[in-house]
Amino acid sequence: MAKHCPELSLLFHALADPTRRSILTRLSEGPARVTDLSDPTGLRLPTVMRHLSVLEEVGLIATSKDGRVRTCAIVPEALEPVRTWLDEQRAIWEARLDRLEAFAMKAMKEPME
Fold first, then answer.
1. What's the pLDDT tens digit per position in 78-99?
2. Considering Cα of 35, then 43, then 50, then 11, what sign does the dihedral take?
3. Under 8 Å CB-to-CB from 33, ≥6 apart: which residues?
4. pTM (predicted TM-score)
5. Which residue ranges does the record assign to the HTH arsR-type domain (predicted)?
6. How far is the CA of 28 from the CAs of 4, 5, 91, 97, in angstroms?
7. Cβ 56 vs Cβ 78: under 8 Å
């Protein structure tokens, strides 16, 4: 059984929501004010703030406040556990597919009885 990583579960939870993913996509272009992040969503500011809170709690974004303006920035290195897990899964499935291909090729070469 795979080892349990609570950090990974929290990251996937944060990434599971399409609104949060769209916020991260926007922040990948550069830092943005909360109001700029809120406008394209069509959601009320408190709802967007809850989404931002989830992203900040798992370390995917960092926020700063200058007067009344709160700015958000993405923290790309926070995705490293997800990248590592996905790379491990890819290696496992590629090995399985390689074994399946070898089995199929061997079965095709054997004469039928």
1. 999 999 999 999 999 999 999 9
2. negative
3. 69, 70, 71, 72
4. 0.80
5. 1-94
6. 29, 26, 27, 34
7. no
